[in-house]
Amino acid sequence: MTSDSFVPEGSTVLVTGGTGFIGAHCIQILLEQGFNVKAAARSQEKADQMAQVFDKYKNQLSFGIIEDITDYNSLVNLVKGCTAILHLASPYTYAVNDFKKELLDPALKGTLTILEAANQEKSIKRIVITSSFAAVFDATKGLQPGVALTERDFSPLTYEDGIKTSDPAVAYRASKIVSERAAWDFVKDKRPAFDIVVLCPPMVYGPLVSTKTLKSLDQLNFSNSTIWNMATSGSNSSVPPTKGPVFVDVRDLAYAHYQSLVVPEASNQRFMVSAGVFSNQEICDALREQLSPARAKKVPVGTPNKILDPEHFTTDSTKAIEVLGMSFRPVNEPVVDLVNQLYDFLG
């Protein structure tokens, strides 16, 4: 922390989606760095669980209960006294029936409502929005071997595409780019006193902040559940195909959120936050090599050391490295740390 931090230490930061996997890591780093955090939670139960996790920071952490992230009046009250906002709350699920109601509208209206509420609070200096690699990737271009995707790339999907599709993955990708474009349009048209920073992470892996409130592994977030299921499927099982071949460690992503608050030069910038390409075979190799023998024997053998096939696009996070001071963990670190944590949880 330097004296010229854009959002100074001791400021209050509102975190939406703070009870989620990524949000909890963001809260942790903010508390460690001396910020006060106001976490938006959908229920008192979730707030109580988060308070238990961060018990030693109870003087820095408060909660606002907000059942609907599109509720303007509730958000106006929530942003009062805050200097900055980390906006992570957005639906990430393919188990939906109504794409408009369950994916597109919550993402779009949630982002716009946050911006509109913040525009009524003169103390707000910066809003960091967690977008996604989904807002960068254009699936119509195929695998694009040899192409390095950056924050300069944008998905062409529209709101209408998200509604008309029968594929929940397309609807999800549309929800991310539509809500992100709306944020940029808001800044351009309304010229608010605050600026924004947009982060575009791919698949996010890594250990949980704590397993204190974890009742069962059924509560795992989607990306981590895929790692756990693969790591425990048995040595003779097939290594599943690598569907999303780019990743970031959750701890690095949380650091990117923190840096986005304090680095003045991040103002109104978009960043790719990706450690690079991986394959599920590479993950299995790392798990078999680095886990204890009893745990390693449950990991699929597959074809050791086989590179990603077919070849895919890559990512280039040079801008995040240069502006935000990022460095990235290799894929073995988040997955080994996660799997060991979950085995320890199970006892």
UniProtKB/TrEMBL annotation:
A GO term for molecular function: oxidoreductase activity, acting on the CH-OH group of donors, NAD or NADP as acceptor
Keywords carried by this UniProt record: Oxidoreductase
SUPFAM superfamilies the record matches: NAD(P)-binding Rossmann-fold domains (SSF51735)
Tagged with keyword Oxidoreductase: yes
Matches recorded under InterPro entries: Epimerase_deHydtase, NAD(P)-bd_dom_sf, NAD(P)_dehydrat-like
PANTHER family: NAD DEPENDENT EPIMERASE/DEHYDRATASE, STEROL-4-ALPHA-CARBOXYLATE 3-DEHYDROGENASE, DECARBOXYLATING
Family annotation (CDD domains): AR_SDR_e
Claim: Aminoacyl-tRNA synthetase is one of the keywords in the record: no
Pfam families in the cross-refs: Epimerase (PF01370)
Family: Belongs to the NAD(P)-dependent epimerase/dehydratase family. Dihydroflavonol-4-reductase subfamily.
Domain NAD-dependent epimerase/dehydratase residues, every copy: 13-213
Name of the protein described by the UniProt record: NAD-dependent epimerase/dehydratase domain-containing protein
